[in-house]
Amino acid sequence: MASQIFSATVVGINAEIIEVEADTKGGGELGSVAIVGLPDTAVSESKERVKSAIKNSGLNFPKIKLTINLAPAHLKKQGSGLDLPIAISILLNSGALNKENNFKNKLFLGELALNGNIRPVQGVLPIAIKAKKEKIKTIFVPKENAEEAKLIRELEVIPVNNLKELVFHLQNKEKIKTQKYLEPNFLNSKQAYDMSFIRGQEHAKRALEIVAAGNHNLIMNGPPGSGKTMLAKALSSILPDLKLKECIDITRIYSVSGELLNNKNLIKQRPFRSPHHTASAASLTGGGTKPRPGEISLAHRGILFLDELPEFSKHILENLRQPLEEGFINICRANSSLRFPANFVLVAAMNPCPCGYYGDKDKECTCSAHQINNYQKKISGPILDRIDMHITVPRISYEKLSDEEKGESSENIKKRIEIARTIQDERFKNKKFSINSEMDSENTKNFCILDQETKNILKLAMDKMKLSPRSYFKILKTARTIADLEESEKIKINHLTEALQYKI
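Below the sequence we write its predicted structure tokens.
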């Protein structure tokens, strides 16, 4: 009779339960192992690792032909995390483990070293989430992955060092202590960049406050050295603290991407990703032979900073249309289609021309009109239309640079932002979203009501500026955020006019 053990494999950023069956029936070479069920190379090679690990752990490897089936057969099995369940399935079939032991509510995961030690694997958090959903009670994982798995509080997590230790645990000889749940602290640690460090640029800092309050996208245009990069980095210091659900969403993506192995704890800070303009489309949006999240997904619930925006390939920038509009990206392949979350704040910076000094009052631009036009055309109209706010960041004068008086601290600004977010939480408590920028057109009409005088100003601006319907709704959402920062129930004329100036 075939033995049956549960494990899981990662598909995109989610997981699917795998049944590992070992059977000794059928002819063939004694001691050989055949793995079926659409395994990739890493899974196919596991038979050699498993065989050595069992023998080097002082356990008997059966001298019969073994067939290992990984079900469901249609699903591609990836990675080395199936080593441990394959080994347990073989030991169960050979009689080293008691078949009467209840394995129905247990899930095993881990890569085996040749000496029987268990190495950490990627994607443990989405597997733990899936295990809870499928009502599996106990999950056995490598010791290095135990804290990650225990983020799902309801699961019993058993941290395992090696195969022999696990066998003794299953034989009730020496029990392994379960992993304890540690209550996370969601307060962001002190940021390297504080808004008070930035001299001048009051207009830009005001724009960042609106960005943080409503999760609006921003593009900064200005000469080199005016402080655009520092402003983008300082934005992290005024974003609201993460909630538990957001932390788990982010940690799940980093777990699948393999960026969590050296950081065993829950990710508690909003990501700040700044890919170079030479990055490929796959590295930015996700993909590859085995599709993995890209930079836009690693920036989920945080900031994606694109410095020198026109230097990015136009083709790559066009890939941002869907995530900017919908908060996710679909990666389509011949045999599958995966959806990766990508709900980020886009902050982009650019120079006005190739030399960087077009329009500068103090330094002459050396670019021709043709060069300036071609440079600015690198960013398409549809992309610019999807960016809520546009600001100019001018050169800072000596007087402001040498001023000893510090500006308003990030801590004070953050307090206003948290009040604005609380207002939005209450407003959207019965909705699937909680932030102004995530409103669709219907909700924008319902929650961004203008009086007649304010409507007239908006109509005049629409006609004069030739704005698109998308820009119309983005202006309303930005005005709603400005009103929230002032704790105003209604959108007033000054809120609308300030929102309009960010679209000029």
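The longest strand covers residues 14-23.
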